[in-house]
Design brief:
heterodimer, A: about 230 residues, alpha/beta, Rossmann fold, 10 strands, about 25% strand, globular, B: about 325 residues, mainly alpha, two-stranded antiparallel sheet
């Protein structure tokens, strides 16, 4: 469904992505692991068309490198940014409405589904999104992207700075999303979550993929963990 | 006294609403794209000249429709084929680009219609006193301008707060990138807003031309005021633009009729006129004379006291 071949990207003079190769099949949860600054976020921004890059990026067999972000989104790629880019001045309901690409789009998820999953969002539907707590904002950003009915959803560090109870909620939500046949590309710091819910994991280091395999094989490989993950 | 107060208030509100018609487009464009459109006041001037030309040949009503349409279309094309390409080279290039456009419009207007103003007058259909304010007849045309400006304002607010495109615009004011990543065609929204902004500037020119003087100086004179309105109101804030427009409209209108100076003050506190004449010309200067600099004074005070403006969410 998603395939990256030899993707390179630069921020000014620094070579952030140095030939990234990865792929994802339908309904899979795949996690990108690695320390800060190794290019995990840049990889998903490159897929989203937010970073200038070279190489090949294919989604559902179509070459998407060079397309505009909105065109990539309309093909069925959803993106949940790391900094929880909600629209703070708009209400929760308006944020969710903006997730829809068209006015009466009927996808896998409706606003009612979102409210059923997170009653808290319904309670605060008419409140400015800016006053929600960090965890609630994280839920809102994920739900907002789901309203656009993506076939692939890329989630950047969803559990960062969240209380353990909220982390559990996020993990649970990700599983439910995958159950409906949506592929998930997750960027995560917390190894436990990643190993628990992913089918496969990639470890990135210095702008390229240094390990690919199942969570079990990563658990078994102490060298990789020591060299690329542990601090 | 009361009569003057009433007339000045009405004039100030009308002037303020015209300012808002211009400032609304400018502030939305700035909020979304981060571009201060230096050509905005030139579009207003072009609107006035187009209004004059079309009124002369076809009539005022066609001018009222065709003038803004032409400018709106021109604005949209300018964004699509000019600004969008310049955009990738950064804000300074964009600023220079709009500066070039302003210059071009200025020169073109002078070449076509001459360096002195044109006699753009109130259309005869609307050239009658509508009512008497105390003893002074009040021109119908001004009330027509007021009604039109209020209607535009109400329409603009309704679209922004109730419609889906309005929702996209409000979100794009602060987070254009994120809005694009949710699948909305943000470049198209930019083009639309730029076009509507240019169209509104044109409309303000068509209806404002007969009240003020239609000359090549009008862009420069208004442009500076317009930027003060946008900064005082808060960059990107529509309610701020409305309040600041009315404020500046009223301040300017009232200041012009205030014929008092320090002299009067000195006399009032009972100092002999000759003995008190220490400041010379400074104390003879009336408020009416310093009226033109009042908006800039307000701008400076605002920048020092509250750099984000009345309703802005970020500093200038």
């Amino acid at each position: 469904m998603l395939e990256l071949q030899d993707v390179h990207a630069y921020y000014g003079k620094s070579h952030v992505l140095q030939g990234v190769n990865l792929h994802l099949t339908e309904g899979e949860i795949v996690t990108l692991l690695g320390r800060n600054g190794v290019g995990r976020s840049t990889t998903i921004k490159a897929i989203m068309g937010d970073v200038v890059c070279t190489g090949t990026i294919r989604f559902k067999g179509r070459d998407i490198l060079g397309l505009k972000s909105y065109e990539i989104a309309r093909l069925g790629v959803g993106y949940v940014p790391e900094n929880r880019d909600i629209f703070p001045g708009l209400t929760v309901r308006e944020n969710l409405l903006l997730g829809q690409k068209k006015r009466h789009a009927q996808g896998r998820w409706s606003m009612q589904d979102m409210f059923a999953l997170f009653p808290r969002l319904e309670e605060r539907a008419e409140v400015s999104a800016g006053v929600l707590s960090g965890g609630e904002q994280q839920m809102l950003t994920i739900c907002r992207t789901l309203m656009g009915d993506p076939d692939l959803i890329m989630v950047d560090e969803p559990t960062e700075g969240l209380a353990p109870r909220m982390v559990e909620l996020v993990a649970d939500l990700l599983r439910r999303i995958a159950e409906r046949g949506v592929s998930i590309l997750l960027v995560e710091q917390k190894l436990t979550i990643a190993l628990e819910i992913s089918r496969r994991v990639y470890v990135m280091g210095h702008g390229r993929v240094v390990f690919e395999g199942t969570p079990a094989s990563l658990s078994a490989d102490a060298t990789i963990r020591k060299e690329w993950l542990e601090v | 006294m009361l009569e003057q107060l009433a007339i000045s208030t009405l004039n100030g509100i009308i002037y303020g609403m015209l300012l808002f018609m211009l400032a609304s487009g400018l502030t939305l464009i700035f909020g979304m794209m981060g571009v201060l459109n230096l050509a905005h006041a030139s579009m207003y001037m072009l609107g006035a000249y187009l209004g004059y030309q079309i009124s002369k040949t076809i009539g005022f009503l066609p001018a009222l429709i065709l003038g803004p349409l032409a400018l709106g279309l021109g604005g949209a094309l300018l964004e699509r084929y000019g600004l969008r390409r310049v955009h990738q080279h950064g804000h300074v290039s964009e600023l220079l680009f709009t500066f070039g456009v302003a210059f071009m419009i200025q020169e073109a207007v002078q070449m076509i219609w001459g360096r002195i103003g044109v006699p753009y007058r109130v259309p005869p259909e609307l050239d009658f006193p509508l009512f008497r304010l105390f003893d002074t007849p009040y021109p119908a045309y001004r009330i027509f301008v007021l009604v039109l400006a209020v209607a535009i304002f109400v329409g603009l607010f309704a679209i922004l707060s109730r419609s889906r495109i309005g929702l996209v615009i409000r979100a794009a004011l602060t987070h254009p990138n994120m809005v694009g990543m949710l699948g909305h065609n943000v470049p198209q929204v930019f083009m639309l807003v730029f076009g509507v902004g240019a169209g509104l500037a044109g409309l303000a020119g068509v209806i404002g031309g007969p009240i003020f003087v239609t000359s090549p100086n009008m862009a420069g004179a208004l442009g500076a005021i317009l930027f003060t309105v946008v900064v005082i109101g808060g960059l990107g804030s529509l309610p701020g633009a409305l309040l600041a427009s009315l404020l500046i409209g009223l301040v300017q209108t009232f200041a012009v009729v205030m014929d008092v100076s320090l002299d009067d003050f000195i006399k009032a506190i009972g100092v002999d006129a000759k003995a008190g004449n220490i400041l010379g010309d400074i104390q003879h200067t009336t408020i009416a004379q310093i009226a033109p600099i009042l908006p800039y004074l307000m701008l400076l005070v605002m920048l020092v006291v509250r750099p984000r403006g009345l309703f802005g969410s970020r500093d200038v």
